[in-house]
Structures
1.
Amino acid sequence: MRRFALIALPYAWLLALFLVPFLIVVKISLSDVALSIPPYFPQFSWEEGIGAFLAELDFENFVFLTQDSLYWKAYLSSLFIALVSTALTLMIGYPVAYGMARAPEEWRPTLMMLIILPFWTSFLIRVYAWMGILSQEGFLNQFLLWTGIISTPLTILNTNTAVYIGIVYTYLPFMVLPIYAALDRLDGSLIEAAEDLGCSRLSAFWLVTVPMSRNGIIAGCFLVFIPALGEFVIPSLLGGSGTLMIGKVLWEEFFSNRDWPVASAVAVVLLLILIIPIVLFQRNQQRASEADQ
Amino acid sequence: MSRFSWFNAVSLTLGFAFLYIPMIILVIFSFNESKLVTVWAGFSTKWYGELLANEAFLDAAWVTLRVAVFSSTLATILGTAAAYVLIRSGRFFGRTLFSGMIYAPLVMPEVITGLSLLLLFIGIGLERGVLTIVLAHTTFSMCYVSVVVSSRLATFDKSLEEAALDLGCSSAQAFRLVTLPIIAPAVISGWLLAFTLSLDDLVIASFATGPSATTLPIKIFSAVRLGVSPEINALSTIMISIVTVGVITASLVSKRKMVREREEELMAVRS
């Protein structure tokens, strides 16, 4: 009996507040928009039954997504921005994780703390910090003008460049931690063996260290890519009117245009796109935990 | 992995500079006299004074704190139960669906979680406000708690529980006297994680709330949309300091605990 309650409580909570809401989104994505509250015309009711629902079913909102170029451009540009920023985060995060793994033993708790600290600080504030740095009269421009590298201020805030900087900055700890965990477990004698057998230090790095930290790299990349794809705060604070990201489009569709059926259809398609990386990520995690045992 | 090279030193320095310089600039300029946030005009704490006199911010902070305390506590109870079920209960009806629902919210984009909860609240006619934000935050943060707690449960020795049962404990007693003290650090870090996630959340709260309740992130977001403001810098500095003190204390405590445990082990070996 007690066991039943233990299972039933979290189970019922998740069914009611995770699964059911999601089914509602799917349902509304198949409904027609209406000028009422709530602003959609229900296409499905239990009274009419499933038969009537299926007879009237259309994918109007999804067809609309393919017709209006705003949406598929937003999906493509989100994918592109997420991919590029994941690559940039890897390029910056790997050397940091590598440095941490090779740092003297007594430094490591401090380095670890320095990587985790930003994770506990407000995400919104960390994005906001860049607004003062990247603006026309911001610190970066002041610094570059002072050093004489540029003569007129650069426009960085409200462009895609600022979005890349924002994503790399906020998700860097997510890339560093799994790579550090993988490198920390790496047996140093393997690299010595490679060097004894005639590898240069650089080729030992590429042939031994990088392949041995593969699981960490993959995990880090997915931990950056998946949230970056649906990101809302970064493009709306740092990006400009030309920055198309699907999280922002969904938000505006819902709050500004009040087109709930289309917003729901946008959400359903975004989730369908995300399923592939999520499944790949799960598989990588499973393989990594099997390799540990 | 030793041989710390120049390359390592440079990449660590640059990496941490990148992580910390923006926050340091933010903190420094919260003490700026001028309203222009990029021009230094002398030291002043007036923005802190204005912040503390701003009732709208104080109200929002109070709402945020209440939501975070309630939702993280609920999430810890539900998440710990879920972790216990996942690790200890073996097979039961719908287990795959259950574990799917635990992991899915971790990778679900916030806009989708927010949208779907809003549609549910409207569908059942629940008035939106503090209660609906608590419900929303509990739902996604319980999944984080359950991941943290289940990783601890998975590594601990089940025979300790069995020994307690053999010695005449009821299963509730065994949980309270044996399991709970062992998983307590994970439960506490789960609570802290849930608390931080709730304090931090903008997107889900924006969807789940109504006109009656505004949280601090919603307030900050609407203020900074218009540009940088010194009051927000002051608020950010306060929040960053609280987190910094907390994280440093936690790491000192865990370090001291590790040293003590090592000493105890040494003593045990010697005697």
2.
Amino acid sequence: MPGITREEVAHLARLSRLELGAEELDHLAAQLDDIIGAVARVAEVAADDIPPTSHPLPLTNVMRPDVVRPGLTPEEALSGAPAAEDQRFRVPRILGEE
Amino acid sequence: MTETIRWTAAETASAIADGKVTAVEVAQAHLDRIEAVDAEVHAYLHVDADGALAAAKAVDDARARGDRLGPLAGVPLALKDVFTTKGVPTTCGSRMLEGWRPPYDATVTRRLKDAGVVILGKTNMDEFAMGSSTENSAYGPTGNPWDTTKVPGGSGGGSAAAIASFQAPLAIGTDTGGSIRQPAALTGTVGVKPTYGGVSRYGLVAFSSSLDQGGPCARTVLDAALLHEAIAGHDPLDSTSIDAPVPNVVEAARSGSVRGMRVGVVKEFAGEGYQAGVLARFAEAVELLRELGAEIVEISCPNFTYAMPAYYLIAPSEASSNLARFDAMRYGLRVGDDGEHSAEEVMSLTREAGFGAEVKRRIMLGTYALSSGYYDAYYGQAQKVRTLITRDFEAAFGQVDVLVSPTTPTTAFPIGERADDPMAMYLADLCTIPSNLAGNAAMSLPCGLADEDGLPVGLQIIAPAMADDRLYRVGAAVEAGYLSRWGAPLLDRAPAL
């Protein structure tokens, strides 16, 4: 398995919405390369005929009755908001981007 | 009579029920203890003295009215800061949630309150439960009460340190790869990861949803069982919660015995990387089990050697998705909202400022493992390893009732030693990870001190899913065996703070 490049790490940071500094990027790139090298060992297991396990419980489609039940009040829901206005979350501009 | 803070939870509840002491007096004794020693240990991130005293008074009032008290009514507890507590700060050890006061209680929090448990405060942890030393907390590390220059383990180092330093008789932790059991081992306390789905995850801030499991931390096996019973059971608010009766863990803890049981020793958990003092105490524990009437069988679980690599693909993958919720829009930190930056820029600036190094590493590792072109080789292959590990357990439990191993390869290591060496840090969870991947139940309890450093060693017991009671049956027998050998609990040998 090839190592991870600094450019790939920069791309991952963008995908992860992390505004990494240059020094942090170098440091992380070296560490991620080490970690990926170590975890790549999972490829050693010949497992073509092995089904994947995504979850320890064999549960599908857990339902509840479709009835109205109490939830948070608008005040409670907004209580931790960095900014709020007129019972709504106020967010930075989302239009006008590329 | 020993001082209040050294009582077990069971003794404390009896003393309150019998009117020998009030719940308020017990709460105050613990608040005084926190005041006296927590500057040195730093187990707590937030102490809720007013809330604790009010909860204690409610128990005393209920008793005065003649109400029947539950088995843990009035007993103080330290809650890992990853469970939401209505109106009380919940940070997950992160700057991202500094000052956040949740508008709702986690199911675990709710059940503790309903049981009359007195929540003293919230405990320190590795940020978002990612770590094995509690050094990844944004609010500074926690010291191990046995030697405050050493780590208490992690991610639940605060919870384990709080009970080991008599700042609470009980605590709650969460275990994604060993975060209850490994700190228990390093601090000479008892910690249990229940069967996955046994304890509700509602209000537990998610790290890796298919692995995370809340559970009890205590100084005795019986206390852990009492707490386990109080928090376990089906919760309609968690769709992965098991809708079946809780195994009778309290009864098992009261009737500890291994006579006639088959106990498997996992062959793969030994050798290179294991400290001599850990292996020596483990060998003695196996001998004790034999003396107590268990049949010892060596078991090979060949795929366990791939558990750590699989875990460090699966857990970061789920984390990269779960932590996407920290977007600076609805709650938590917001950085760079100056009218110039766009929402997306604010998001990236906030996540850069709010997350620590380990969280960033794992988010990026998970993003990598899930990205197209790498998905099959990494995440897909790790999921197959998960199947193989589950099959290893199934084969093992076809031959034995429980498995045993050291909980950790080494005793507590110095604060700072592995802080910037992620691979070295990850080795701390070598023996605990397989149970998270398979979703079964496991316990760590103290089995002595390592000769070379005088620090606690943990014995891990693993039982099949939904057979949590076996952990307590075996654990209680082992604990009684050691108590008769040692003449006193291990924690009596910890240096005074």
